[in-house]
Amino acid sequence: MANVVRMKDIAEKANVSTVTVSKALSGQKGVSEQKREEIIRIAKKMGYKAKTDRSQRCNVSYNLGILMASRFFDQLNSFYGNLQMLMSNEAVKKECFATMEVISPEMERDLVLPKLLSQEKVDGYLVLGCLDEKYLDYMDEKSDIPYIYVDFAHSSNQRDCVISDSYYGAYQLTNYLFEMGHRKIAYVGTVLTTGSITDRYLGFLKSMMEHGEEVRDEWVIPDRDKETGMMDVSKYFNIPKEMPTAFVCNCDLAASYLERKLSDLGYSCPEDISIAGYDNLSYPYLTDLRFTTYEVDTKEMARKAVHNLIHKINREYYRKGTVIVVGHLIRRETVRDIRV
Prior knowledge:
Number of domains: 3
Order of helices and strands: HHHHEHEHHEHEEHEHEEHEEHEE
Helix content: 25-40%
Largest sheet: 6 strands, parallel
Radius of gyration: 24 Å
Strand content: 5-15%
Distance between the termini: 74 Å
Number of helices: 12
Shape: elongated
Low-confidence stretches: 52-58
Number of strands: 12
CATH topology of the largest domain: Rossmann fold
């Protein structure tokens, strides 16, 4: 059986990118007529056949970009680091290449396109973690390269994204605290900083309302700067004068910082205070505790994001709009049963 000629083979022969080859062969703009004719001539000589059915398209290799804000590129933020690694692995499974580009605050502010887009280095890209919507709109306007948002949704609800079920995850966590006898429950997270933090607060709020409990202002505790997204224990995590019996934290990192601060004040978890986190990640340099938490299925998020992006590039059917990936509750010793 003859070897299948791929776009990357043509790209190597023509000394151009696979993106340029794809555009030349599909009649898209962005390629000069002279270069287009040269690429078509090389493709014919090499025996390239256009992929017309799904089984053949599976043999095409693509360059996929992963864009992430520098504020998430933190050694403590292992959630995004793990998700980026999983998406890269999924790309490899599909015989694709994944390239990361970090987006600086200056790029967002000054509306500077990522080089992966401005230089057309990728066939499609994944945006990992929320960027400023003006910047997202700018990228959408200036580039026709297909994309998928990961772990956040655009306010218009008109763009493709893959997110976890933050709302119902936090709702289940808070319901579990009620099952364990807790009624005085606080929420830790700066609401409106990200969609996931806000959704988790709303899930917490739903459970509190259904159980007839008031949500006190001092029991909604910010954990980070709303503009930069950076956690700061000295500035935030303000412990209320009247203590709740339990805290629901927007992530396990926030739970770890909270436990550390409470420990410094003489509180012990779970003997004095119960703490629930989110994500199912551990931070041994902050605490030895493994929190009751809600595990996000990051493997499935990565799989769906890459799968949908490749199908979008191929103009094949995929589930458009918002795709929600379900996780599950994990019960551990950081929540004490206080039922009488």
